[in-house]
Amino acid sequence: MVGNCTVPLPVRCSGKILGEVLVPGATRPRGRPPRHTTAEITAAACRLADREGIEVVTMRRVAAELGVGAASLYTYVATRDDLLDLMQDAVADEYELGALTGDWLADVVAVAMQTREILLRHPWAVALVEARPSTGLRGLDVFEHVLAALADHPADDDSKLVAYGAVNAVVIAFVRSEISAHRMAARTIAQLTEAANDGRHPHIAALRLEHQGSGEENLRRTITGILTGLLPDS
Fold it and tell me: 89, 11 in Cβ contact below 8 A?
């Protein structure tokens, strides 16, 4: 239990039930059936953040997204911090944690590459991952999966945690760089396209304007090098 009252509440993001998430300070609603569930509130907050960024996610804005008064949300989510926890765990549910292969390096790299994909889909989640531990049930499932992958490795627990922390830090740095590069590329392409259409820049007009690659393979090589360097097999 955290605080005075902690109860499990179902969470949904992108139309998918996430299961039970512990929400400090939340209470089970009584009386009439709720107009919106905690799952729907979380999904609305995720949609809002995807569209406009995490900064705009307030109880009032989420309530407006749902077409209800802000006060009604506090029946299910006590504070904005609790809502951010739910959003973070909703994002963690996007991991596909299949059976381990027995190759610890491949399994941990696979999780790291999924982290990149998820953060690129939800850029607002980068700030949450950096600022707060993911202690919701789905976040803990991911952590458990990584620890299981590393269970038979001879390194001590501290070394494993340091290596996994380093990998996460590098993934976040790569994602930030990719997001920035994508925004810059989009702006540059828009400017060149405008120049190509003005009739005064025929050579610019002849250019094939395409986005560059995502850097996925560079990240894969980097995190593989980090893991093999920090966790040698012998």
Answer: yes
Q: Return the SS3 of 208.
A: coil
DSSP 102: S
Distance CA 24, CA 74 (A): 12
What is the rounded distance in angstroms from the CA atom of residue 215 to the CA atom of residue 194?
27
User: Torsions phi, psi of 91, nearest 5?
Assistant: -65, -40
pTM: 0.73
Distance of CA 106 to the CA centre of its chain: 21
* Residue entry with tokens 């360097």: 229
CA 61 to chain centre: 21
Residues 6+ apart with CB under 8 A from 21: 8, 9, 10, 11, 85, 86, 89, 136, 137, 138
- The answer on pLDDT for 211 being more than 60 is no
